[in-house]
Structures are given as structure tokens and as C-alpha cells.
Write a structure and sequence with these properties.
The complex is a heterodimer of chains A (315) and B (95). Chain A is built from 13 helices and two strands; from the N terminus they run ααααααααααββααα. By secondary structure, chain A is mostly helical. The longest helix of chain A has 29 residues, at 148-176. The chains are: A mainly alpha (315), B alpha+beta (95). At the A-B interface, helix 4, helix 5, helix 7 and helix 13 of A face strand 2 and helix 1 of B.
Chain lengths: 315, 95
């Protein structure tokens, strides 16, 4: 009897998805849909706040006040993006603290790109242009995801992201108009960030385990490879315009496909970084852990003060 | 975690005079004052608001979505509540 009921509920749920009705927090949903979303949204939220670290690294060393203001505003936005996403995740009944604990214990994942170091100022340009550029490609597609609170968070985020990519590209443009050394620095950043940026879209469709179900439930609307291709097609002309070389000898325009062909991605490197062996994994988690621990007394004090105020009001 | 978690607040923002407050999301804060301050930092970094309401999430009582067909049914059958239900003779422009 219960079996039949579940089948009916699932059919009704799928019918809603198919007719583009958004799913809202208290609606019935399959347990796997809920779990997939909790995993995806929390990973996404973690990526936003871990993503603050490589850029935060350059705030005190930005070359001038304008760049410093811009970078501060961008990093603050990323913190905000994390907040929108944790808020969306909580509507699925998963606590923010639990999610934070999972990040610190290393149980939860976040985008592999943030495990690469930002060695020079040009890296801040490359991150804004390529990393935010790749993130935007993903996030624009997610504005129409089937879960209402996630889609609404994505709409807010996308509005804020557009300046992120522009400020990064502007940094690259200025460097490419500069001295020999500055141009070399920009090219070096490009060389180091190009492939990791392509990896941000996740494994190729043939090897992506979660893809099919996510497409059926319209959590995702495009495959990893489709989004990666769009990113490449959009970015190559931008690089060419300012005189940067894409570090891929197999890259060339394919007239028949109407897309750029590109070389083999080093999935071994991707696996290494995702499984905790990237250049900065340990450092990133340690920084989040320190922030969590150092902030503990502040959270406790604020709560104690709030309770004291409440008690005083009541008496 | 030994720390008591900060309660969750729902945030509503009025984007300009003449418009109603609209739900934008939620956040954690120890009390209402700090919830409003946090909401300013999280939800109005681009001048999205001129007024903020916060309501503790545990205080929100909502209708039950699994019951919504029956719950909202009384309004569905009353087509005569809409102007299109009525016939107006030719020649009458505005009514
Ligand atoms: Fe972001
Ligand atoms: Fe961003």
C-alpha cells in the first residue's frame, strides 16, 4: 500500500517538474532529490566562502586604492553569496552549523579551483576573469533550476557576479598594455588558471555519475561538457583580443561544429585536487577552521548578551 | 558544537516607498537588532532596500502545501468574482 503511494507521489512530483512548476520547501519531494540538493547547494556555498581566501590574500597588496576597494567589494560579495546559499540549503532541513562542521572536518567538498594558490597580482585578474567567468556560466544555467529557493539565490548571485568578471578582465587588459614583465605575468597567470578553470565544470559527461538524475529533476539543465564548451567559446576571443595565448596546442575553431575543439583535460590532476591533494587544500581548510574557532567566543558572547537583554525586558 | 546556535530569521525588504516588504531569504542572528544589521549587509549591498523587517522563522505558521488543493478550492469555483464572468452589451467602452 505504502509502495503505491510513493510511486504516485513520485509521479506527481515528476509531472510538476516536467511542467516547469518550481518545487518549494514544504512540498513533497523524493528523498534523493532533497539529498542531492543539500549536497549541491552546500558545496556551492562552501565554494563561495572558501573562494574568499585566494583573493583575500591580495587585499592588503592590491596595487592601488581603486583596485583594493574593488577587490574588497568582490570578496564581500562572495561572502554574501555563501550566505544566500546556506539560507537556501537550510530550507531543506539541513542545519548551517552541520554544514560548516562538515566543511571543517573535510567531509564536505567545494570547488577544486580554490585549492590553487594566487601567486601574483595577475592571478587576481585571472581568477576574476576565468574563475568567475566559469562560475557565471554555471550559475546562469542554475537560475532556472527546479528548486525555488536555490533558483532565487542564483538570480541574486548572477546580478552581482557580472562586475566580478569585468574587474578581473580589466586587470588582465591593463597588464597586457604594460611592460614586458607585466605581460609575462598575465600570461603566466593564464597558463596556470586555464586548465583548472575548465575543470570547474566537473567530469566529462561520460564519467559524470550524478548527471542523469539531476537532468531528469531539472536541478541541472545542461551537462558539464555543454557548459564547458560555452565557456571556451566565449573566452577564447577575449583572450585573443588582449593578446593572451590559450595554453592548449590542440585548441582550434571547428567550422563544422561551430565550436572550438580543445585538448585533453588532465582528469588525474582533478581527482588529486578533489580528493584533498591539491596545492592548497590543507591551508584552505585550516583557514576556515581557524575562522570558526576564533569566532566562537564572539558568537557565544552575542548570544549571551541577547539572552540577557531579553531577560531584562521580561522582568 | 557546544555553542548554542543563533536563531534563524526570515528577512523582508521594502525596495522603495510605495511597495510592500518582500521576502528575500533568511539569516542567523542572536537577536532582532542584529538580524536587521546582518540583513542590511547580506541583502542590501546594492541599495536593494530602504526598510527591513525580520521575523524569527520559528514564529512563521504556514498553510500546508499537501492540503493546498482543498484549502484553496473555495476560491476556484467562484468565477462570478471576476469581471469576465459578466456580459456587457456592445457599445459600452469602460466598465
Ligand atoms: Fe560568487
Ligand atoms: Fe564572484
Amino acid at each position: 500500500m505504502k509502495e503505491v503511494n510513493l510511486t504516485e507521489l513520485e509521479a506527481a512530483f515528476q509531472a510538476k517538474i516536467d511542467s516547469e512548476v518550481r518545487i518549494e520547501p514544504k512540498d513533497w519531494m523524493p528523498e534523493r532529490y532533497r539529498k542531492t540538493l543539500i549536497r549541491q547547494i552546500s558545496q556551492h556555498a562552501h565554494s563561495e566562502i572558501v573562494g574568499m581566501l585566494p583573493e583575500g590574500n591580495w587585499i592588503t597588496r592590491a596595487p592601488n586604492l581603486r583596485r583594493k576597494q574593488v577587490l574588497l567589494a568582490k570578496v564581500q560579495d562572495e561572502g554574501g553569496h555563501g550566505q544566500y546559499l546556506y539560507s537556501a540549503m537550510e530550507t531543506l532541513g539541513h542545519s548551517r552549523q552541520q554544514s560548516m562542521d562538515d566543511l571543517i572536518s573535510g567531509k564536505a567538498k567545494y570547488s577544486s579551483i580554490f585549492n590553487y594558490p594566487t601567486l601574483t597580482w595577475a592571478d587576481i585578474g585571472a581568477v576574476g576573469w576565468l574563475v568567475d567567468g566559469a562560475a557565471i556560466m554555471n550559475q546562469v544555467a542554475l537560475c532556472r533550476t527546479s528548486y525555488g529557493p536555490y533558483a532565487r539565490a542564483m538570480v541574486r548571485i548572477c546580478k552581482e557576479e557580472s562586475f566580478h568578471q569585468r574587474q578581473g578582465f580589466e586587470i588582465m587588459c591593463v597588464l597586457m598594455k604594460g611592460s614586458e614583465e607585466q605581460r609575462a605575468m598575465a600570461q603566466d597567470a593564464m597558463n596556470r588558471f586555464w586548465w583548472p578553470a575548465l575543470m570547474m565544470f566537473g567530469p566529462s559527461d561520460a564519467d559524470s555519475t550524478n548527471s542523469e538524475e539531476s537532468l531528469k529533476w531539472r536541478i541541472k539543465r545542461h551537462t558539464n561538457d555543454e557548459l564547458r564548451q560555452s565557456f571556451i567559446d566565449a573566452t577564447v576571443p577575449q583572450a585573443e583580443l588582449i593578446g593572451l595565448t590559450i595554453p592548449d596546442k590542440d585548441l582550434k575553431w571547428n567550422e563544422a561544429r561551430g565550436h572550438y575543439d580543445y585538448g585533453q583535460i588532465d582528469w588525474n590532476e582533478f581527482k588529486q585536487v578533489v580528493s584533498g591533494h591539491g596545492p592548497c587544500n590543507t591551508e584552505r581548510i585550516a583557514a576556515r577552521k581557524k575562522a570558526e574557532e576564533d569566532g566562537k567566543w564572539v558568537r557565544e558572547a552575542a548570544m549571551a548578551y541577547a539572552e540577557k537583554k531579553k531577560a531584562r525586558k521580561a522582568s | 558544537m557546544s555553542t548554542k546556535d543563533w536563531p534563524l530569521w526570515e528577512v523582508f525588504i521594502r525596495s522603495k516607498q510605495g511597495l510592500a516588504h518582500k521576502h528575500v531569504g533568511s539569516l542567523h542572528a542572536p537577536d532582532a537588532e542584529m538580524a536587521v544589521e546582518n540583513a542590511r549587509d547580506v541583502y542590501t549591498r546594492r541599495n536593494e532596500g530602504i526598510s527591513i523587517w525580520v521575523v524569527e522563522s520559528s514564529q512563521v505558521f504556514a498553510s500546508d502545501p499537501s492540503d493546498s488543493d482543498a484549502f484553496f478550492e473555495p476560491a476556484q469555483s467562484k468565477v462570478y468574482r471576476h469581471p469576465t464572468f459578466y456580459e456587457v452589451p456592445e457599445g459600452i467602452a469602460h466598465m
